[in-house]
Protein: ABC transporter ATP-binding protein
Amino acid sequence: MHTLTCQNIVRKMGDDFTLGPINLEIPAGTITAVIGNNGAGKTTLFEALSGDYPGEGETNIFGHNIHDVEAKAAFSYVPQRFPEVLSFRLQQLRNLHAAHDDSWEDKRFQNFVQEFKLPLRKKISKLSVGMQRKAVIALQLSRDTSLLLLDEPFAGLDMEGQTQLEKILIRKMDDDPDGSIVFATHIADEVQRLADYIVIMKDGKTREPMEKDILAQRFKRIWLAKPVTGVEEVPGIREVSVEGATPQILTSDAEATEKWLAERDVQILKRERLSLHESLPLMLRDRETNEV
Structure:
């Protein structure tokens, strides 16, 4: 089952940038990280997925079109920027949700207020950037929905806030095992700690979701007993270093690389998986985005 699907999503932003076409399927019961450098189109994608600026194509949430009432009631969205709430007090926004939102869980909201130490009667605009984000997170996560769309949710949060949000998201998945979370980021630590799947985004395009653990198996640094002629042309090779006594190669397709080496009786002295801090920048390079 998929919580979210989108087909041929295209959104043109003037003459300089085009999102898509985007085709995505987000499995139920998973956390998916959308990864891209600044300007890759992550915010534009989330605006399209949430229905704020849908563009062309079709987005469905639990089988309902994004414009249907059933779809709107099934997801919560925390955007990167939220100017429309800044002039309100948190208590006013709570009252609006409580009066008009059938998915509202007031006890959950009060728990968030206590956990985040949020002032209810102060205008959102008067809060710090981190507290503003906590306020919007509290509002959206107090809705009883099974899909969360979060655009850079950790941005502006201090270390305590980041830890709190991590625990909240993990608790959300424990309480709703058929739900899904999709969040945008460019920070490897967030991906490492939370994500089951990774979606690479570059220049308004995405690759299909890839399992984080499978990617971790593919990216390796390998030490060889001696230099090997032609190793630069092996599929998956990203870097070759022949400095020092032990040549090193870095690959994004360890299985294919090791097969090629074995066919030539090349001795491998050591192999080591790359951390996401090392592998994510490689995924975002032009060549890598086309091949992974």
About this structure: The chain has two domains: 2-207, 215-284.
